[in-house]
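To: structure subgroup
Subject: Chain for Friday's discussion

All,

I'm putting the inputs and outputs inline so they're searchable in the archive.
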Amino acid sequence: MPQISLSTNRATALKPAISYNSSLHIKQLDAVRGCAILLVLLYHFYGEYAGVFNIGWTGVDLFFVLSGFLITGILTDSKQQASYFKNFYIKRVLRIFPIYFIVIGIILYLVPLFSSTAIPDLPYYHNHQGWFWTYFQNWLFTIKGFPDDRVLRYTWSLCIEEQFYMFWPFIIYKFSAKNILRISIGFIVLANVLRLLPLPVDNNYIYVNTFARIDALSVGALIAILIRTRKELLEKYATMIMLVSVIALLGNIAYTRSTFFMNLYPVYTFIALFFGGLIVWSLSSNAPRPLQLIVNNPVFMFFGKYSYGLYLYHVPIHLWLTPWLFKIVQSYIHPALWNKLLISSAGLLVAIAVSVISFRFIETPFLNLKKKLIVKRK
C-alpha cells in the first residue's frame, strides 16, 4: 500500500495542478513576462560578448505565446458582454499606441535635429515611414529585407502582435471554442508550411512575417481555450510536451553548436510549445521549486511590469548611448571586454530608468483613461 501511494505521488508531481482564475490579475504571469523581456535584454546588451546570451532571441517567442494566451482568454471571457469590440480595442490602443508613436516620432524627426549621423538609414525610414506608423513594417521587411540600420528593425514583433489583435477578436466572437482550437492548430500548421516554402520574397519573411510566426500566438490561444474547456488535457500532457520540446531544442543547440539557431525554422514551434508548457506550469499550485522561485520573484515581476517600455526603449539606447559611453571610459578600464560589459550594463540601467519614468508619467495617465472609456459589465 505505501508503494502505491508513493507511485501516485510521484506521478502527480509530474503533472501540473492548474489553478487559474481569469478574473484575477495573475502576478506569476507578470514574472513570465519579465522572463521574456530579460531574455531580449540579455541578447541585445550582452549577446555579442557572451554566446550563452544569444538564446535571448527566443524571448520574443515567449512574448508571442503569452500574448496569445492572455488575449484569447480576455476575449473568450468577455464575448458575451456589451461593447465587446469597443472595450477590447480601447484597452489595446491606450496600452500600445502612446509610447510606440512617441518612439517612432523621436527617432524619425527629433534625433536627426541633433545628429545627422545617428541614423545612417534615415532616408530609408523616411521613405517607408507609412509602414511604421501603421504597424506593417514587418511586411516591408518581408518584401525588401531589413535595413542595415538596426534602430527600428526590432519593431517587427510589435507589428505581428498588433495585426493579431486586428483579426483575432472577430474569430473569437464568431466561432465556438472547439472551432477556435481547430483554427489555432491550422495556424500552427500554416506557419510551418510557410517557413518551408521557397517563396519569392526576402528570406527574412520566415522570421518576421505575421503568418510565418503565428504558431507561437496560436499555441498561447490553444492553452487559453483548453484551460477553460479541457484543463485535464493540459495537466496530462504539458510535461511531456515540454520534455519533447527540450530534447528538440538541445538537439538544435548540439547541431549548431550555438544557442543562436534562429535559422533552423522548424524549431520555432518547439520553442513555442516549451514556453506554453512553462506558462501552464507557472499557473500550477504544485510547480517545481525552481520555477516557483522565478514566477513568485519580485524582480521578475518588476521587469514584467515595465516590459513594454523596456522593449521599445532599449534598442535605441543601446545603439546610441553605449558607444558614446565606451569612448569616454575605454582609456580608464581594462581589459576591453570588461569595458564593454560595464558600458552595456550602464546602458541597461538607463533603459530601465527611462522605462520606469515613462510608465509613471506617460503610460499610466493613458491607462487611467480606461476608467472613463470602458463600458462597464451589465
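Points worth raising on Friday:
The radius of gyration is 22 Å.
The chain has one domain: 27-371.

D.
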